[in-house]
């Protein structure tokens, strides 16, 4: 990575100030810190604004955007990605407030970045850390992954779980635009990924870069019981 390249993290939040605090502290603890941390607040009414003013906003790394209404995760990601792109950042690292990257997560993504690819952390269940937070299905091989140790046998898997530590280059944004904010909370990730993929970009999870998140992959899935396999 060229030294002049700049990275903005984009964190979307709504009424989860305690989780948001954990997320922001994990960003400040990165071995390669973002150059800016954009917080898009979907008009929280639980004291989020006051907590941020007291604990974080004196630090100039933070760029706080408080919206006048709840636009959902889709609207929040749209707002933050657009803001980062228009400010000239080379990369946008996207997440919601309920996830926390490991200390080296961003460093690994940038160090191992793959040309012409959208990159994602490996999303790991924040409670049962031997399990992935979401299933992964490799687009090239069709193989499915549920366990961290199985996924980490490969350096990269050609599937991603946005927006959970998702690193997007300005080149991708220039070609594909922004997420569709009309989805509000469900479906925007899938639509945006398919748009990116159809435009010739790869979708890659780097398995050494970890992002902790509440999980939806249960032991019964690994035990081959009949349950829905959720990819996003």
- The count of β-strands is 11
CATH superfamily name? Answer: Spore Coat Polysaccharide Biosynthesis Protein SpsA, Chain A
Cα(first) to Cα(last) distance is 29 Å
Number of domains: 1
**Largest sheet report:** 9 strands, mixed
Strand content: 25-35%
Which radius of gyration do the C-alpha atoms yield?
17 Å
Structural class: alpha/beta
Averaging pLDDT over every residue, what do you get?
92
Detail the poorly predicted runs.
225-232
What would you say this structure looks like, in words?
The chain is of the alpha/beta class and 232 residues long. The protein has one domain: Spore Coat Polysaccharide Biosynthesis Protein SpsA, Chain A (Alpha-Beta Complex). It has helices at 17-28, 48-55, 72-86, 105-111, 148-151, 170-176, 188-198, 219-222; strands at 7-13, 36-41, 62-66, 91-96, 100-101, 117-125, 131-137, 144-147, 156-157, 164-169, 202-213. The strands form 2 sheets. Strands 1, 2, 3, 4, 5, 6, 9, 10 and 11 form a 9-stranded mixed beta sheet that branches. A two-stranded antiparallel sheet has the order 7-8. The chain is globular. The two termini are 29 Å apart.
Layout of helices and strands:
Blueprint: E1 7-13, H1 17-28, E2 36-41, H2 48-55, E3 62-66, H3 72-86, E4 91-96, E5 100-101, H4 105-111, E6 117-125, E7 131-137, E8 144-147, H5 148-151, E9 156-157, E10 164-169, H6 170-176, H7 188-198, E11 202-213, H8 219-222
Parallel strand pairs: 1-2, 1-4, 2-3, 6-11
Antiparallel strand pairs: 4-10, 5-11, 6-10, 7-8, 9-11
